[in-house]
Automatic annotation (TrEMBL):
It comes from Streptomyces phyllanthi. InterPro entries: Glyas_Bleomycin-R_OHBP_Dase, Glyas_Fos-R_dOase_dom, PhnB-like. Residues 58-78 are annotated as: Disordered. Pfam families: Glyoxalase (PF00903). This is VOC family protein. Residues 5-130 form the Glyoxalase/fosfomycin resistance/dioxygenase domain. Gene3D superfamilies: 2,3-Dihydroxybiphenyl 1,2-Dioxygenase, domain 1.
Length: 137
């Protein structure tokens, strides 16, 4: 397998819902492993997500988990997940789903550099950037 860089997002107990939401947005195969799957059956964290991975038909990989037991969930503001390409229909579909129930900080519209771009924060507090470039000839 080639090296890859992908986002890994920590959630405050709603990783299952968030990862299932991202599967609805992007499609693909979602694998979720709980703490109970790895020896913590019968604990309050048994049903929480220890590791989740979504692999999409477009080649995206998104990983996430609930914050480990005993650790504090401290969301940061120093990251965004960026989705870009030149398939206008596909990317607008992602935008519509990601921004629904969240907040839009930059509307998805043509920008000074020529691409259509927008920024939103989804209903789970994750910031997204969507950039629709011009198809190459």
């Amino acid at each position: 397998m080639a090296s890859r860089l992908n986002p890994y997002i920590s959630f405050a107990g709603d990783a299952r819902q968030a990862m299932e939401f991202y599967k609805e947005v992007f499609g693909g195969t979602l694998r979720l492993n709980t703490y109970g799957d790895f020896g913590q059956q019968g604990t309050p964290d048994a049903d929480k997500i220890m590791h989740g991975m979504l692999e999409t038909p477009s080649g995206f990989t998104l990983m996430g988990s609930d914050t480990p037991p005993g650790s504090e969930h401290t969301p940061g503001n120093n990251f965004s997940v960026s989705v870009s390409g030149d398939d206008d229909t596909e990317l607008r579909g992602y935008w519509e789903k990601l921004s629904a129930g969240g907040s839009v900080t930059v509307p998805l519209e043509k920008q000074m550099w020529g691409d259509v771009f927008g920024m939103c924060t989804d209903r789970f507090g994750v910031p997204w950037m969507v950039n629709i470039g011009q198809p190459s000839s």
